[in-house]
Amino acid sequence: MEFKRIGVLGAGNIGTGVITDLVLHGISVVVVDISEEILQRAQTDVLNNIRFVPLLSKTLPRITKEEVGTRMALTTDLRDIASCDFVIENVTENWEVKKQLYENLEQVIPPEVCFGANTSCIPITQIGSATKRPENVVGIHLMNPVYLKPTVEVIRGFHTSDRAVDTLLQLFSQLNKEAIIIDDMPGFVSNRISHLFMNEAAFVLQDRVASAEQIDTIFKKCFGHKMGPLETADLIGLDTVVRSLDVLYESFQDPKYRCCPLLRKLVHAGHLGRKTGKGFFVYPEG
Ligand SMILES: NC(=O)c1ccc[n+]([C@@H]2O[C@H](COP(=O)([O-])OP(=O)(O)OC[C@H]3O[C@@H](n4cnc5c(N)ncnc54)[C@H](O)[C@@H]3O)[C@@H](O)[C@H]2O)c1
Questions:
Q1: Do 71 and 23 contact (CB within 8 A), yes or no?
Q2: CA 283 to ligand 1 centroid distance, Å
Q3: Which residues of 205-220 are buried (b: 16+ CB within 10 A; e: fewer)?
Q4: Average pLDDT rounded to a whole number, residues 16-33
Q5: Among 66, 210, 271, 283, which is least packed by CB within 10 angstroms?
Q6: Residue 129, burial from CB neighbour count under 10 angstroms (0-12, 13-18, 19+)
Q7: What is the DSSP letter of 145?
Q8: 225 is catalytic
């Protein structure tokens, strides 16, 4: 299957990475978000990403600003994705928001179109329960920055069909991405483990055992990790990390996932990480 046009729902942190990856590979996108302002900001972010691609990757295609313009349509009206071949959903990690969206989605897209549900922790079987076509829903856990990551966790929900998985794998082959297909459980593999790690690093900081810089340096220099746990949380977005921990806590009913109060405090203070310029660390503009 040759993908001509893909619907991208949610143009936030991860959505802009998804859009960048698709337009780089010659696929047109219809981007849906809730306001014109967010859509305009997403367009600016995508153009910035495209500008830096030659510095960051030797293999990704080089495209012009004009090509981005012809491949990217922006809208706040969900009905505009009616003619898309596939839909990638990246809206806020909040069950009520996702549930409402999936209920509306099936009113506008043909029954054969499959959806890639991009979530950090919400089970794909649960997302499938919000539609009358759970067989069309396949989970994707894309990591940031999406266009630079060659491997993706793909999750089979209880009802996910082979057709939905195959469709997604065809898309990933067009994007030169490898998939690791796993079973459905809250947090999947990566976030079930990594959120414990980021949360505990926040507790260590809260307990004043070490500074944020020291905590991350230990992981980078002693373990050889590319990024420390706090920098990783800043990259994901602290609001998304907190929501994911809440989903894990609720789903497993296990206190090991209780969210560190310092993490929640930073979110309430509006320090969401890289996307707001401040989180555990400070990021210069741009
Ligand atoms: N940030 C990461 O590194 C990361 C990694 C993997 C998966 N995810 C998952 O991807 C999803 C998005 O995460 P994010 O970090 O981009 O969040 P974000 O808060 O940066 O962006 C979410 C976007 O969804 C939009 N939105 C909300 N309701 C909508 C609706 N009804 N229709 C269209 N758009 C709507 C918001 O306006 C916002 O622009 C979440 O489920 C998250 O768990 C995030």
A1: yes
A2: 21
A3: beeeeeebeebbebbe
A4: 97
A5: 66
A6: middle
A7: S
A8: no
Structure tokens at 160: 């996910």
**Is the Cβ–Cβ distance between 43 and 59 less than 8 Å?**
no
For ligand 1, the distance from its centroid to the CA atom of residue 173, given in whole angstroms, is 24
**Ligand 1: which of 39, 93, 96, 99 to mutate, judged by most atoms within 8 Å of the beta carbon?**
93
* Distance from the alpha carbon of residue 144 to the mean position of ligand 1, in angstroms: 12
Which atom of ligand 1 sits closest to the CA of residue 235?
3
Which two structure tokens, joined as six digits, stand for 125?
Answer: 């079987």
Residues with CB under 6 A from ligand 1: 9-15, 32-34, 38, 90-93, 97, 101, 118-120, 141-144, 236-237, 240, 244
For 55-104, write each residue's pLDDT tens digit: 999 999 999 999 999 999 999 999 999 999 999 999 999 999 999 999 99
pLDDT for the residue 139: 98
